[in-house]
Design goal:
Layout (H helix, E strand, L loop, with lengths): L3 E6 L3 H12 L1 H8 L3 E7 L3 H7 L5 E3 L3 H4 L6 E4 L6 H11 L3 E4 L2 H18 L3 E2 L10 H8 L5 E7 L2 H13 L3 H11 L7 H4 L2 H15 L9 E2 L7 H9 L2 E12 L2 E12 L11 E8 L3 E8 L3 H18 L30 E11 L4 H11 L4 E6 L8 E8 L2 E2 H12 L9 E5 L5
Parallel strand pairs: 1-2, 1-4, 2-3, 4-5, 5-6, 8-10, 10-17
Antiparallel strand pairs: 7-9, 7-11, 9-10, 11-12, 13-15, 13-16, 13-17, 14-15
Helix pairs in contact: 1-13, 2-13, 5-6, 6-11, 8-9, 14-15
Length: 437
Amino acid sequence: MKPINVGLLGIGTVGGGTYTVLKRNREEIARRAGREIVVTMIADKDLDKARQLADPGVVVTDNAHEITTHPAIDIVVELIGGQTIAKDLILEAIAHGKHVVTANKALLANHGTEIFAVARAKGVIVAFEAAVAGGIPIIKALREGLTANRITWIAGIINGTANFILSEMREKGLSFAEVLQQAQKLGYAEADPTYDIEGIDAAHKITLMSAIAFGIPVQFSKVYTEGITKLTGEDIRYAEELGYRIKLLGITKRVEKGIELRVHPTLIPIRRLIANVEGVMNAVVVRGDAVGATLYYGAGAGAEPTASSVIADLVDVTRMQTADPMHRVPTLSFQPDLLSDTPVISMEDVETSYYLRMQVIDKPGVMAEITRIVADNDISISALIQKEPGSDSDRVSVIMLTHLTVEKNINAAIARIESLPVVTNKVIRIRIEELNK
C-alpha cells in the first residue's frame, strides 16, 4: 500500500522528537500500521533548524498553509501550540479533508467541541493522545480500554513541573521560590511558569479526560482551578506527620448532582501509589465500576515520550482512515449524538474532606470557640492537633482535619474563624481525597 504522507507543523521539542522516532522506528511502525508513515513536508519559522533535521526530499517551508492545503498530505500533525494560528490551521486542514493529530491541550480544552463537530461533518479524525500526560496512553485507555465501565472518578498528577516542585519542597525542605528557580534552571519550568504552577495546564488536561470519561462536551470554563503558589513547607511537613502527601491533582467525579471538575493541591494518604509519584513524572488513577481502580504512570512530557503518543495517533489514524466514519471510535468515546447534558457542578457544592491550619493566640477558650463555629456549619472534625508554642511566642498552630463536608460550609466556617481576634492569620485550607472508593 502507498505510504501515508504526513505534514508536520512545528519542529520544536515534540516535533523534533516525533520526526526522530518516526525515522528510527520506521520499519516497526510500518509493520503495525500496515503501511509506511512518512513525513514529506515540514513547516517551521526556523527554516535552518528544519532543514538540518529534514532528510533529502522532505519539503521545508515557513508557510504552514502550504501543508494544510496540499493535496498530497494525508495527515497534518499540529505541534506549534497556541489557540489562534493553530486553530485556524487545524480548521483549514479539516476543510481540505485531512486528518489531524495534535498535542494542543489548551486549544482543545477551549475549542474542542467546535473542532470535533467540524471534523465529524467532514468525515475526518482529530486525534490528541499527546495532549494529556505526554507518553502515557490515557486517552486510548479511556476511549477504548475502559468502554465496558461506568467511570466514577479520575484523579491525576498531570503536570510534571508542579509535581517536581512539591517533591523537592518535601525532600529538601526548600521554599517554593527556591525550587521554582531550580526547576527553571533544569528546564522543567518555563520562564513564565504561570500555566504550570497555577494549575491551568492541569485544568486543560482534566477537561479533556472528563469529557471522554462522562460523555459531556468540553467545558474548560467550568473547571475550578487553584495552584500551588500558596503552599508552604510547614503544611507539607504537617501533612507527612499526619500520613498524607500533598500533590496537585486534576479531579473529575460523577456524583448525584452532576460532574465535579477541579484542580487543586490535595492531601492523599501516603499508602496510595499515586502519592509516591515523584519528580516530573505523571500518573492518573481511573475508577470504573467493573474494573475498579487502574493506575497509569509514566513521563508526562519530553521530546520522545510525547512523540510516542503522537506516533500512536498517527498509526491509529492510518488504520482507521479507510473505515466508515460511523464505525470509528468516537472522538469523545460516546457517539456524538448521545453526549450528555449532565451539568458540571459548582465548587461550592463539592463534598470532600479538609485540612485546615490556623495560627491562634494560646489562651483558654480559643479551641472551644473554633470548634463551636465548625459545628454550627455542620462540619464534623476527625482530628484536632495543637502544636506547642515557641519559647518566645504566645501563638500556636492549630491543625484540623474534617470528615466529608460541603465546600460552602467550609467557606462559611473559615470566614467566621478568620474574624476572631484570637486568630492571627488567614486559614490555610487544603482538600483531602482518600481515593479509596
